[in-house]
Automatic annotation (TrEMBL):
Signal peptide: none annotated. Pathway: Amino-acid biosynthesis; L-methionine biosynthesis via de novo pathway; L-homoserine from L-aspartate: step 3/3; Amino-acid biosynthesis; L-threonine biosynthesis; L-threonine from L-aspartate: step 3/5. CDD domains: ACT_HSDH-Hom (cd04881). This is Homoserine dehydrogenase. Its cofactor is a metal cation. The keyword Transmembrane does not apply. Its EC number is 1.1.1.3. InterPro entries: ACT-like_dom_sf, ACT_dom, Asp/hSer_DH_NAD-bd, HDH, HDH_cat, HDH_CS, NAD(P)-bd_dom_sf. Keywords: Amino-acid biosynthesis, Methionine biosynthesis, NADP, Oxidoreductase, Sodium, Threonine biosynthesis. It is an enzyme of class 1 (oxidoreductase). It catalyses: L-homoserine + NADP(+) = L-aspartate 4-semialdehyde + NADPH + H(+); L-homoserine + NAD(+) = L-aspartate 4-semialdehyde + NADH + H(+).
Length: 430
């Protein structure tokens, strides 16, 4: 039966995502009411610039006082799409204290303070949902938290940043260098004027922390995620990748150790076989590949950013939270019971592709091979091309720990015959 008193929603932020949330709430009002069991009403919109014209939004709802809005006491759900740590964190905790549930798209805040925010939601018997915080429209949080709640996830391997995927895809398909591809991404509006958060992997690391936490029922904070950006990837790296039947992607990788006793989370560029489903994720799309014990391999694909796709995820959460409120219940909160230790990067085990510039003379290959052997790193393949006494040596290893590989590279750099280490890239997804 339809309840006639509407559920009241406060929208914090009315930019690219917020304006789409408001638009869909209006245009789909009847469907949303039917799906929830009560109408939802936009009760207030907090913005920074009140004078901006906002099509479809009643100016009487607009306020610059977000704190007063979340303190009103009659708000059922606060939708936070302003991003950043403050004032979002204080507004969310204030919203819980004043009886509202919260839907957020704020990856940085959830990755940093998710545990404390969940605790605040629990204390007040309210919901905290954030499907939109990871990979825009793609359903990931709910599948991991609910659909796979009876399974055991062992690995999450994802392309969770559209800007960097666009740049790497452009480098792969056109042979462009990093700067040229970044300029194209900027001109087309994919990259921000300051692309640091994307290209240095901060954005992806926040998403990796959230995914790892949910997948492994363990608290994983942003600081636990090893992060390397993709600004050093070169056209030569792509040429090497091609020779191995691979491409290069910026990957977020969350893994359970082979003995199941610990987990790791990392973000870095990596070679991945062209046959892997993630290799075919083009342009600015996102995709996440999940490996679990019973289900096997699952792939989630779609637009990872943009106003409308992100609003889709926000609206899905809004419907779920509203249903919970009508039922007098709350949905799943934080699940961190496993409390597995998060291991440092040195304990990650994977394969490596190493390009060395070396002198081309008798004994060099043996010297290089000895260094690998001394550090317990087994070589899979070696490829050499030389000219005029100098050579390029590409070594691909079997699986080894990051610490062992790091020691190997340090020792290689000390060899007189090694002129330089041109690149080191991990090989994933095999
Ligand atoms: N800047 C991100 C991306 C979207 O390029 O995918 C928001 O997380």
């Amino acid at each position: 039966m339809m309840r006639t008193r509407p559920l009241k929603v406060a929208l914090l932020g009315c930019g690219v995502v917020g304006s789409e949330v408001a638009r869909i709430m209006t245009t789909h009002a009847a469907d949303l009411a039917a799906r929830i069991g009560a109408p939802v009403e936009l009760a207030g919109v907090a913005v920074r610039r009140p004078d901006k014209v906002r099509e479809g939004i009643d100016p009487a709802l607009v306020t610059t006082d977000a704190t007063a809005l979340v303190k009103r006491g009659d708000i059922d759900v606060v939708v936070e799409v302003i991003g950043g740590i403050e004032p979002a964190r204080t507004l969310i905790t204030t919203a819980f204290a004043h009886g509202a549930s919260v839907v957020s798209a704020n990856k940085a805040l959830i990755a940093q303070d998710g545990a404390a925010l969940h605790a605040a939601a629990d204390e007040h018997g309210r919901d905290l949902y954030y499907e939109a915080a990871v990979a825009g429209a793609i359903p990931l949080i709910r599948p991991l938290r609910e659909s796979l709640a009876g399974d055991k996830v062992n690995r999450v391997l994802g392309i969770v940043n559209g800007t960097t995927n666009f740049i790497l895809d452009a480098m792969d398909t056109t042979g462009a260098g990093y700067q040229e591809a970044l300029d194209e991404a900027t001109a087309l509006g994919y990259a921000e004027a300051d692309p640091t958060a994307d290209v240095e992997g901060f954005d992806a690391a926040a998403k990796a922390a959230i995914l790892a936490g949910i997948a492994f029922h363990t608290r994983v904070r942003l600081d636990d995620v090893h992060r390397e950006g993709m600004t050093e990837v070169t056209a030569a790296d792509f040429a090497s990748a091609r020779q191995m039947g691979c491409t290069i992607k910026l990957l977020a990788i969350c893994e359970r150790a082979a003995d199941g006793a610990s987990v790791t989370a990392r973000v870095h560029p990596a070679m991945i076989p062209l046959s892997h489903p993630l290799a075919n994720v083009r342009e600015a799309y996102n995709a996440v590949f999940v490996e679990s014990e019973a289900a096997g391999q699952l792939m989630f694909y779609g637009p990872g950013a943009g106003g409308s796709p992100t609003a889709s995820a926000v609206l899905g959460d809004l419907v779920a939270v509203c249903r919970n409120r009508l039922g007098g219940a709350t949905g799943p909160g934080e699940s961190a019971y496993a409390a597995l230790p998060v291991s440092p990067m040195g304990e990650v085990v994977t394969r490596y592709h190493i390009s060395l510039d070396v002198a081309d003379k008798p004994g060099v290959l043996a010297q290089v091979a000895t260094v690998f052997a001394e550090h317990g790193v087994s070589i899979d393949t070696v490829r050499q091309s030389g000219k005029d006494g100098e050579a390029s040596l590409v070594v691909v290893t079997h699986r080894a720990s990051d610490a062992a590989l790091g020691g190997t590279v340090e020792a290689l750099r000390k060899l007189d015959t090694v002129r330089g280490v041109a690149s080191i890239m991990r090989v994933e997804g095999e």
